[in-house]
Specification:
Order of helices and strands: EHEEHEHEEHEEEEHEEHHEHEHHEHH
Structural class: alpha/beta
CATH topology: Rossmann fold
Largest sheet: 7 strands, parallel
Radius of gyration: 21 Å
Number of strands: 15
Helix content: 40-55%
Distance between the termini: 53 Å
Strand order of the largest sheet: 3-2-1-4-5-9-13
CATH superfamily: NAD(P)-binding Rossmann-like Domain
Number of helices: 12
CATH architecture: 3-Layer(aba) Sandwich
Length: about 375
């Protein structure tokens, strides 16, 4: 059972998921005395979450620095390792992605071993599995479904490598004769308040008169999951990893809720339509082969312009393959193993996200 007065460390705690997770821990965690929020860029508003029961401590540092990681983890009891550099557009060098996602995870595991920290929950990604570059569908699949995995891009490669290290570390003997227990959570596409990509889609839609032009067939389905439910699953996993380490240790879990299966475009319209946006076309307006040629052209321009500037449009061969390939999960593994059920219904998740998107309207009007 979890001991009283625990110290939780949340790496990447000021990011999109991390900030929701910190708030969730403050509101709903048990036996937690301190939450250390570790990030390269601090969100000072999180400091105000401290209350009489839980202290929130913000610590600035670099996950790729062993010294910084050791400083924040020493004295901790549970680590939720959510720090990650997400880039599928070529905005940052592959070496930097590897340094953050792989070296950073190596640092966390090393300090857990040296300091005797027994419990580690890792935030992975659906992209450690797919969609693959061949467009093979992953339809209503679960954690045990066989799938042809092909990793080529730096981000999925780094997440796959990091998750493998985390899972292989489960059961390892660490300082004080203890055992390290680890598990990994794989969110599908996360949405909700603070999602930067949704903000970009909103801004892009303004430039086209609040019209979005269909590019992907509506029959292409993706699993999406609300950020609040992803945070809730992390909290439950961290608690039950301590209570049932032999069951959860070494396991992977997809994050899921009751959000509908839709294409990325149609799912985003669930929120953007509330701001007067409309989708043009019931079918793709541009043939797939032309989209693919445009994606290839973007990649060529990115390569040619690299010495002079960063050219990183949303569309490239990888993002086109992801958007065009069905990837949905249907599983109850997290419910069976640690009692997870979504904390937020689809209606609540949609209402919260729509409210956030509508806040853009107020900012536009105040300019």
């Amino acid at each position: 059972m979890p001991s009283e007065g625990q110290v939780y460390v949340v790496t990447g705690g000021c990011g999109f998921l991390g900030s929701h997770l910190v708030r969730m821990l403050v509101e709903r965690s048990r036996n937690v005395a301190e939450i250390r929020v570790f990030d390269l860029h601090l969100d000072e508003t999180l400091r105000t979450l401290s209350n009489d029961q839980v202290k929130v401590t913000l610590i600035q540092g670099d996950i790729s620095s062993l010294e910084d990681v050791r400083a924040v983890l020493t004295g901790g009891h549970v680590v939720i390792h959510s720090a990650s550099l997400v880039d599928v557009w070529g905005r940052v060098p592959a070496s930097k992605i590897t340094k953050v996602n792989v070296t950073g995870t190596e640092n966390v595991l090393r300090v857990c071993e040296e300091e005797g920290i027994q419990y580690l929950v890792y935030t992975s990604s659906m992209e450690v599995v797919g969609p693959n570059i061949h467009g093979d569908p992953f339809f209503r699949a679960n954690e045990d479904t066989e799938y042809n995995i092909y990793h080529k891009e730096p981000y999925p490669l780094s997440k796959s490598t990091a998750e493998k290290m985390v899972l292989e570390a489960n059961g390892k003997k660490i300082k004080g004769g203890r055992i390290l227990y680890t598990c990994s959570l794989r969110p599908t596409g996360i949405y909700g308040e603070g999602h930067e990509l949704m903000r970009q889609f909103y801004q892009q839609g303004l430039r086209t008169g609040r019209r979005l032009f269909r590019a992907i067939p509506p029959s292409t389905e993706h699993g999406r999951v609300y950020v609040g439910n992803v945070a809730w699953m992390h909290l439950l996993a961290a608690q039950h990893l301590q209570e049932r380490p032999s069951l959860l240790g070494g396991q992977v879990y997809y994050c899921y809720d009751h959000s509908p299966y839709k294409s990325y475009e149609d799912f985003n319209m669930e929120f953007l339509s509330a701001c007067g946006f409309r989708m043009i076309g019931s079918r793709p307006l541009v043939p797939y082969f032309l989209l693919y040629l445009l994606a290839l052209l973007n990649s060529l321009l990115q390569w040619l312009l690299y010495p002079f500037c960063t050219y990183a449009p949303i569309l490239n061969p990888y993002t086109l393959a992801v958007a065009s390939t069905t990837f949905t999960v249907q599983t109850d593994k997290a419910e069976r193993h640690f009692g997870y059920t979504p904390l937020f219904s689809w209606e609540e998740s949609k209402r919260n996200t729509v409210g956030w998107v509508k806040s853009f309207e107020e900012k536009e009007k105040s300019r």
